[in-house]
Amino acid sequence: xxxxxxxxxxxxxxxxxxxxxxxxxxxxxxxxxxxxxxxxxxxxxxxxxxxxxxxxxxxxxxxxxxxxxxxxxxxxxxxxxxxxxxxxxxxxxxxxxxxxxxxxxxxxxxxxxxxxxxxxxxxxxxxxxxxxxxxxxxxxxxxxxxxxxxxxxxxxxxxxxxxxxxxxxxxxxxxxxxxxxxxxxxxxxxxxxxxxxxxxxxxxxxxxxxxxxxxxxxxxxxxxxxxxxxxxxxxxxxxxxxxxxxxxxxxxxxxxx
Length: 257
Prior knowledge:
mainly alpha
């Protein structure tokens, strides 16, 4: 293992291995490299996180813009209060509530997993992005199943952070609606919706895009709780399983990625 060499040499060897995505072998997986296990699970996490990020941005940005347009009204107060409530609810609790409502009581959506078991046994995934693979294979039943399984986890993860964008967008939109170009547009008789959603909203995207990049990392951290709640076989679920097994090599690799 190279433990007889100086600590500095050991550390540099470790850094060089990480650069080459060589994380060694998990303590609980025999001779299988950790890199292979992460390669199977990272697409699942990305397939969950990307739609959740889109949902977060769409709900947060347009709700914030709507609240700014109706500043001081009942709609404004309702949206602001709702954003605080949604942001305050723990991700796993929101996921459990959605499971009880939409899966157990209504039976509209599946409870857990990424695809129906019967379809999964006949489905060949090349990239481990089930939605993409189903589209490329033109497999309608597999695509519908993958999207149905994706909806609840993505909704849970996306709504949990949408409150941040509601507050951010509203604050920037209120400032932007007081600018001279908005006043000039109103004087020329431009419709209010066009001023708000086309001109003013476009100029507020700089801080919003910055926040999206920062929140994406938080979404990956939130995926740990979401994947555990919905039994989603991604990086988060893998991390929890390896923590329970005290497999520090695998845990360290997941955290690094």
